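RETRY 2/3 - previous attempt timed out on the joint model. Re-submitting the same 780-residue input unchanged.
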Amino acid sequence: MDNFDFYSPTEFVFGRDTESRCGECVARYGGSRVLIVYGGGSAVRSGLLARVGASLDAAGIVHTALGGVRPNPTDDKVREGIALCRAHGIDMLLAVGGGSVIDTAKAIAAGVPYDGDFWDFFEHKVTVSEALPVGTVLTIPAAGSEGSGNSVITNAALQKKISLRTPRALRPRFSILNPCLTFTLPAAQTAAGATDMMAHIMERYFTNTPDTAVTDALSEALLRTIAEATPQAIARPDGYAARATLMWSGTLAHNGLCGTGCEEDWASHFIEHELSAIYDVTHGAGLAVVFPAWLTWMARHHAAKTAQWARNVWGVAEGSDDTATTLAGVDRFKQWLRSVGMPVTLAELGIDRPDIALLNSRLHEHMGPTVGHYVPLTAADTEEIYRLAL
Amino acid sequence: MDNFDFYSPTEFVFGRDTESRCGECVARYGGSRVLIVYGGGSAVRSGLLARVGASLDAAGIVHTALGGVRPNPTDDKVREGIALCRAHGIDMLLAVGGGSVIDTAKAIAAGVPYDGDFWDFFEHKVTVSEALPVGTVLTIPAAGSEGSGNSVITNAALQKKISLRTPRALRPRFSILNPCLTFTLPAAQTAAGATDMMAHIMERYFTNTPDTAVTDALSEALLRTIAEATPQAIARPDGYAARATLMWSGTLAHNGLCGTGCEEDWASHFIEHELSAIYDVTHGAGLAVVFPAWLTWMARHHAAKTAQWARNVWGVAEGSDDTATTLAGVDRFKQWLRSVGMPVTLAELGIDRPDIALLNSRLHEHMGPTVGHYVPLTAADTEEIYRLAL
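RETRY 2/3 succeeded.
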């Protein structure tokens, strides 16, 4: 096990009706003038924004709102939010939505006290040393942003989707997790979210670091739990138990717990980010296509940990050959993905004639000569992986 | 799954040589004048206290020390620490040791800014609203106090061992976890620590709350991991991997993760506390005797979750009868306990003629008419459990 720092200070307030505790939570973490950031009209139509507003009102907290954040959120909305915060003397962000909304709120929070352009943080020219505090009310379990210090924003003009990671500054102070808010999620979004969670765990799990018994056991347990709960949530969208399982799993998948003591990989995420940036696909659906391709490539090049995954997550019987064991696991993973309605090829994802040369050159332009750590992938390797996804 | 708040803001700094980061951590959390609390001479002889002091010196932090904390720590040392803090204008506590040392430091931290007697907190007359910040350098993985807001202190005059639980005030700001510091732990202490960790998980796991899939899966994974690592650590005391596994497991066993969404039990801990208070036994060894007795009683009265435990932790084959499945699990658990050198009866614990009437009357005097939640145990029930431990 490698040395590590694990710091997950976010207060998670989990359960039915917990959005009624927004005011209490904002006040506890020092907010008095709040910008509520949200996405489409569903938060309005469902009455959620009104309930959040009522809770803030009851606590005497002034608030204004910024809607219209879209999936694969872009820099323009961040700039709009920064200007709004400055104009209204905002001292806390409250994101009401999924990962896109939360990531936008975090980028705004970093940008407000910064004199330059917030995109400097995403280009890694400057470190976020100061930011407004952020709270969240999660409505889509997937990205794990409610428990992480990360934010992923796409610069529309540059066609660049970049992940900013901060150990402290952008971790939400609190996150309100009410599984009932996810009852209305369509099957496709539920499955894409679950795939994203699994990917967050697997990006950490596929490591060469030896002796990571605790982290492995927790990761395998969460992967099995997500695999079981997802079809249940799809079959019965308003079943509390499966929705609660997915919501809590999604947070634990990405708050750092599953990576303690491991060198992490993250190649599949970066390979997918180019798909999202160019073809605007759903991140989780993109991962459903990329991860099996990445695993298939690994089966033939470095199959030790992937074989452990096949055995302990997918119940593949012990075999003498790690390659065959891994491939059997990939088969079961793909079967599972198909069973919950996910695509497993680029064609199924709706990209009939992907520009692999463009995807791959963008990838290495952003990431350098190699991507990932389990096997550092060269441009030739990642081109093969894009082709395996055809 | 029940509604829950999960808040574990402690920064865990894990790995080799991490005690050299004491100064950095104390400074980050605002300490400038530190009281180091420690136990016996081993922290001095091993050079650990000197290394901690050097790290504080390098960061320009003033420090003084209070040694002599003993297992099952008592109120007198807390009072001594409070006086010392006030005399020296201390603004942070740094506990260097195991659970007894950390619990003492927490009680001191609560007592310093309080006008009355600190024991008021333990008698639940007053809530801890304010406390000095606490950091820890852990040397014994067992109690989990490095990641919890709890403190257990024995009032020697009253022969009362009481657990104080705070959601926020007494959670350490940081905990430094260097597995190498545990290489010198004797086998008996290693095994008692592992038993304590397992008990912390099981006290949360044995619940009637339905639909706790995530929490169950994580708890079962940690229990299996501890069961595997403990004999490895005993066989090779300076093997880093097993020591690291136990250290991180002990923290996760008790920082709240394994209880998310569950009504918790804790009967076995309270039953054991009376043993410790009267016979001064090692807490973990006491639990090794009490928990199998509690489980044996449950096998005949409420065996649903205990049968799940037998199957998923100890690999007992699926049977038609939860009682038989549970008893088979208890057999394996006792075998495991014996294999790592733990006692499983009061006689093996060195208590040949326990005063069960006294233990049981003290227990219900402290806890009221019933103890625990999985089955609320009456005085008649707990008397049976004490007898099952003979």
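The mean pLDDT of chain A is 97. Closing ticket.
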